[in-house]
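This week, study the protein below.
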Amino acid sequence: MEIIHLVLGKANPQRMNGVNKVVNDLATRQALAGEKVQLWGITANPVHDYPEREYQTRLYKTGKYPFLLDKELKSDILKKKGNAIFHLHGGFIPAMYSAAIWMRRNAIPFVFTPHGSYNVIAREKNWLIKNIYFMLFELPLLKAAKAIHSLGKSEVAGLQKVYKNNKSVLIPYGFELPETVLSPEIKDQLIVGYCGRLDIYTKGLTELLEGFNAFNMKQPRSKLWIIGDGPGKEKLKALAEELELGHEIVFFGAKFGTEKDYLLNKCSVLAAPSRNEGLPTTVLEAASMGVPCLVTEATNTGDYIKKYNAGFVIEHTRSEEIEHGLNVIYEELFDFKRSKLMGDNARKMVAEAFNWKLILGRFQQLYQA
C-alpha cells in the first residue's frame, strides 16, 4: 500500500517551520525502509526548489481562494482510491479541510496529524476567530478522519478538550543518532543554546533571556547562543541590550545542515522553554549529540528527559524556573564524576525512545488499521 503525505508547502527541511522537517523525516525514513512513499505539496510556488530527497514529490498550485482545491489534485486523489493511504498534515489550513471533505465524499480514508494546532496555548491567539473556524471547518475534518495522530500528550489533551473521541493515536517521530559526536572545545564555560523560530511568546524567549541573565550573574563565564530567525529578532536584541547582555549573547541567525549541527554540538545545554509545541526536533537533534536539554512540559519531551535523566524539566515558562534548571544542569556538568553521564543519557534516550524502526512499525499498524 502506497503512503501519500499531503502538506501545505513542500516539506523543505531548510525552513524554520518545524512541520516541514517532521514530515520530511517521516517520509524519508518510510522510503528508506522500503515503503512506497510520495509527498504531495500545496504551494503558491510549485517549483521543485528543495534538497534532494528519497521519495517522490508532486506539487499543486494553491487556488485563487484558500478553500479552492486544485482540480488536478482532486483528480489524482480519486485515482489513488483503494491503492494508497493518505496522511494529511496541519490544522487550521483551508486547503486541508477541502481535501479532507473531498476524501470523505468519495469514501477515501485518511489519517490526520494536526501538529500542535489544538494545544491550549495555540488556541489562545485569535481565539474568537479560531473558535468560529474550528466549529465550521476543523470539526468536520476531525470527524471525517479515520485516525488522528498526535506527537505528544499535550496534543492529545488539547484535542480531547475540543473534540472528545476514541480515535487519537500518540506516536512520536523517530531520530537517528549521528555516527560521530565532536567533543566540545570550550571546557570552562557553560554555553546555553536555543535553536528555532524567534517567536517570542510561544517559544518563551523573553523568559529565557531573563532566566539566563539571573544565571549569568552567578556564572559570568556563561554564554547564550541564539540560533534562528523570525519576527522577534530585533525585540530580543533590544532586550539583550536592556539587560546588558550584549557580550554574553550571540545571535547567529538561521542555520541549517552542517552549520547548525556544528553550533548545536558546541552547546553545553539546549534550552527549549516553549509554551506550545508538537515535538521539537531541535531537542532530539541536540540530545543525539550528547547535549543535555532544559525543556518545559509543553514540549512533550519532559517525560523522556525525566526518565533518562537527560537534562532538566520545568513546569512553566518562567524566568526563575529557567534559572533554577540552568543551575542544576551546571552543577551536574561541572561535577567531575557526573560530567559525562547526562550527555550519555541524552544519547541513550534518543536511541531507545525515538528508535525509527519501532516508530515506523507503529505507523504501519496505524495505516493498516
Remarks:
- DSSP finds 14 helices and 13 strands in the chain.
- Residues 127-144 form the longest helix (18 residues).
